[in-house]
Amino acid sequence: MNWDVVIGLEVHVQLNTETKAFCGCRVNYGDAPNTHVCPVCLAYPGSLPVLNREMVNRAIMLGLATHCHIRPHSTFARKNYFYPDLPKGYQISQYEDPICYRGWVDIQIGDRKKRIGLTRIHMEEDAGKSMHGEDGTLVDLNRCGTPLLEIVSEPDISSPEEAYAYLAALKQIVRYTGVSDCNMEEGSMRCDANISLKPKGQVTFGTRTELKNMNSFRNVERALKYEIERQRKVLESGGSIVQQTLLWDEQSGTTKMMRSKEDSHDYRYFPEPDLSPVEVDADWIEAMRAALPELPDKRKQRFMDQFALSDEDTCLLTSEKEIADYFEDVLKFYDNPRLAGNWVRNEILRILIDSGKSITESPVSPKALAGLLVFLDKKTITAQTAKAVLDEMAACGTSAEAIIREKGLEQISDSGELEKLIDGIFAEHADLVQKLRSGETKLLAFFIGQVMRATKGQADQALTRDIIHKKLEE
Question: Mean per-residue pLDDT for 394-412?
Fold first, then answer.
């Protein structure tokens, strides 16, 4: 039987505000356990929450970036459940009146584009963290009360590959807006997936399961593939899918039951009596709209139009806002977008990957890279030499000009000097010269390589090629 796959994703994004959602405690990842807590986030009797305005600002900004409607009057609710790391016994969240609703995110898989609807984006607080070890379970409440946005998609995703593309597109938008760093390893972006199968063409959805404990986009994709196959086998053998929450076991590559799946009534939502409704007027929305940066799709299109770059180049150069910023900063000092783009996406990113650094930590500044590319444009140095100079710039922080001058790396463009060198190489490899004259053109690369080796990469390759061709005709 053929099946339709129905997937909806719930993404939690931890906001990068300085303080928590409803108190003044600092938000700092990795600090000593239970050092950023107070009577409010510890739920001491008589303590009252106070809404962090920056959480609302970030919610509005992300809502606008994902084409959502912004609700002028939204409310908070208590979501009741009991975990050791949830001191109040409930989570302050939004239920009936989320601040953002009915938006969308576009994804692309190969040449195919698809629009994924967003049901809602709502504000809530995070729970603490339980740490399990040989000596038992310890609870760190530093994270308790950290502001979150939950982004709930429509069930528009129909494959694990689409889920991966959606998460990547959403992460890119979130990072461009600056509301979160989306570091999945630190838990600042987390994803739960609801998945069901139904006979192809059937309107009614099948029974869904929820997947949790996925700490990377690749694990989301793997877990969905596994669950699709598991549900297919159950259904085709005549069984029924049970609505439940499943944990993804990365080591075994399988899912395990965590608990029966809750519905909204299980949480006994009711209005939060200690917080007033959030009133967002048109001026507030327009202020957030004005603060929006140029978003990924628009920046990509501008790069293609303004700089005549390929789709592949612009995808990589705009994959992160910081990379796009770095590239445009290079162009402030060097007016060749194609060459600058090639060096940013190939050489600068190579250095950063090797060193484990981000683009904002690049040891070569945009101005320094531009200075190197000017020498390359003027043919002061060869491309091979330029790469070696860049590596030294990254290692010691010296300018390209200083390295070139100190090591005498100027390109050899003296035709007389190159002719003498090539004559010597031809004499040393007379048999290969004859084969080259006879039509074995692949040997041309060998002789150019010999010249480059003899000059330590400083010979003008174009001139070298011309001289070799000239001598072959003699």
Answer: 86
